[in-house]
Design brief:
The structure is a single chain. The chain is mostly beta strands. It has a single domain, classed as Nucleic acid-binding proteins (OB fold (Dihydrolipoamide Acetyltransferase, E2P)). 9% of the residues lie in helices and 52% in strands. The protein is built from 1 helix and 6 strands; from the N terminus they run ββββαββ. It has a 5-stranded mixed beta barrel. The longest helix has 10 residues. The protein is globular, with a radius of gyration of 17 Å. The N and C termini lie far apart (48 Å).
């Protein structure tokens, strides 16, 4: 049986997406999603804790994220966890976990004053 590392996140972008090309010519877009954790059920309550997740979206999905999302946009991201490991110049082991998106749903509502294109 294949191991599973799937995650679903619902939150807001902390900055505008950053799109780049790899050395092999593939497009990758990176952004961070902040997820608020409320222990109280009231909508007016301040979040008690916030988690930040780095998202990596590839090719057309990433290009769409880069074009249509911006800081503050509400999204639901589904994807797989990926751990990158490396050694520093001093020989110390480091690692970072990010989410490789398999789906990004744009949840922000269109502004009422936006003109139709």
């Amino acid at each position: 049986m294949k191991n599973l590392s799937y995650i679903i996140l619902d939150g807001n972008l902390t900055h505008d997406p950053d799109r780049k090309q790899t050395s092999l010519g593939k497009s990758v877009t990176n952004f961070t999603v902040a997820v608020n954790h409320n222990s109280n059920s009231g909508e007016d309550k301040e979040p008690e804790d916030v988690s930040y997740f780095e998202i990596e979206a590839w090719e057309k999905m990433g290009e769409n994220c880069s074009e249509y999302l911006k800081k503050g946009s509400k999204v639901t991201v589904m994807g797989n966890l990926k751990q990158n490991r490396w050694k520093t110049n001093e020989g110390e082991n480091r690692s970072k976990v990010k989410v490789v998106a398999t789906s990004v749903r744009f949840d922000s509502q269109k502004r009422k004053d936006a003109k139709a294109a």
